[in-house]
Amino acid sequence: MAIFFGLNIIFAWNRVQYSGDFNQYGYLTIANGGLALLFGSRNNLLSLVTRVPSTTLLMFHRWVGRAAVFYASLHLYGESRDWIKEGEVSTVFANMRIQVGLMAWLSLALIFVTSLSIMRRQQFEVFYYAHALFIAFIIGALIHADHAPEFLLPGLCLWALDRVIRFSRNFRRIQILSVTPYATDVMKIKIRGFKTSYPGQIAWIQISEVSFLNWHPFTVASAPGDDEAMFLIRGLGGYTRRVQDLAKKNNFEQASIAEIPFPWKIRVDGPYGVSHTQWEAYPVIVLVAGGVGITPGLSIASHILRHATGTGENIEGRPPWHVHLLWVIKDEQHVNWCQEELQNLFAMSASPTVQATFDLTIAITGSARLEARAANDDEFIALEGQTSHDYNGPGELIRGRPNIVQWFRALRSKRDGLDGAVNVCGPRSLISMVRTAAADLSGRGGIFHLEEEVFEL
Ligand SMILES: Cc1cc2nc3c(=O)[nH]c(=O)nc-3n(C[C@H](O)[C@H](O)[C@H](O)COP(=O)(O)OP(=O)(O)OC[C@H]3O[C@@H](n4cnc5c(N)ncnc54)[C@H](O)[C@@H]3O)c2cc1C
């Protein structure tokens, strides 16, 4: 970021005297516009070569995009100031080159406005499809500015390549193996015909029976290389609720539907995303998840336990891996979402050929029973972390909000002297508690390296 800001300041520095001096800002617009294209594509060469996570690339994409709008506006202001003063506006704007320049600026301005976080959160489709206006920006810039191809064509070629790869994935044969709707507005889909390369990758999913135009991102909960990919989809807004309704309407119950002809078609674009953490390089893997945020944790845990069988590399004489998963959910029923997968993880870790331990704590923060017992907030807090003895599912179950710092402290004393890699995925409040705990408990006894994930762009 420092290099980005530094370069922009150096190149933008200009003792402006004449309107022609504002041309410099036009060039800075196309330079940043070209970079925005490079950072924005899903199949990203940069991310592939440098293993920079897509969240970081998205952050750069936003900043170079903002810089492009800023310089384009400065360029327009500087150039048009004198035309307005001298009453030449109508003559100048009759010029085709100026008209397309104006179109390029307008396209950028619209992309900027529709990308504001309020629009992105509330009108995702408007934000997403308004980005197509960048084609108008490119055409306008290519006609309006000299040397525009040098700045814009490299990014444009990589963007076109990305679109070709994405289009070709439409023809991939995806078989739906099972669809399991849960009472709590969460649905599990298992498919075949799609594999990931790294733990915690995402895929964009399209279900044409719900919408032909909408593609939504979901984390693949299975391990890299698995023949079956699993997704947990929570009904949040318009699209995901329609997916839940479709699943309920078809009444799949909990049955496998491999044998019956499946009434929907699913398209999958991906896998995308690289993590900057090489999970198997750490002796301790700490996974903290809130609700459906369990998906990256499940993928990482399965990957480590698979790796600990020694099939990928020779692990003889290597100390074991320790996987600790804390899953915070509102209701005990939510355990059902991935009871089978969690039990499989326990079964794997119990195998004598697997050099790994798996430890699971499930914290129920708001079950009806708990709320009935805790009439007010003080009592609720007093119930923090009580172990439940009437639970016979996988792992240990506690009722009440977990004390994250205490949980990390217990983990630190159990795994003293070992470094840990931490993945946290869930609400921002949970992420911030984990960040604080990981920082506080990093020290001579071992360092916690943190990777944070939120389910939003
Ligand atoms: C990297 C990533 C991984 C995710 N993994 C999972 C997962 O494993 N399980 C799960 O249940 N959810 C996951 N999500 C969230 C899921 O994509 C959204 O809940 C879903 O797209 C919401 O769409 P909606 O129309 O139902 O809700 P809306 O109410 O329209 O939107 C709710 C939120 O989702 C965002 N959103 C809406 N449409 C899209 C879209 N097409 N692409 C991206 N964001 C969108 C909106 O900006 C808003 O912030 C993930 C999101 C991201 C970014």
UniProtKB/TrEMBL annotation:
Record's keyword annotation contains Oxidoreductase: yes
Gene3D superfamilies: Nucleotide-binding domain of ferredoxin-NADP reductase (FNR) module
A Pfam family matched in the record: Ferric_reduct
Membrane-related topology note: Multi-pass membrane protein
Annotated GO CC locations: plasma membrane
Principal location listed in the UniProt entry: membrane
Transmembrane spans: 98-119, 126-145
Boundaries of every FAD-binding FR-type domain copy: 169-278
Subcellular location: Membrane
Classification via InterPro entries: Cyt_b245_heavy_chain, FAD-bd_8, FAD-bd_FR_type, Fe3_Rdtase_TM_dom, Fe_red_NAD-bd_6, FNR_nucleotide-bd, RBOH/FRE, Riboflavin_synthase-like_b-brl
Keyword terms, alphabetized: Electron transport, Ion transport, Membrane, Oxidoreductase, Transmembrane, Transmembrane helix, Transport
Entry's Gene Ontology BP terms: monoatomic ion transport
One example GO MF annotation: superoxide-generating NAD(P)H oxidase activity
Highest taxon above the source species: Eukaryota
PANTHER family: FERRIC REDUCTION OXIDASE 6-RELATED, NADPH OXIDASE
Protein name: Ferric reduction oxidase 6
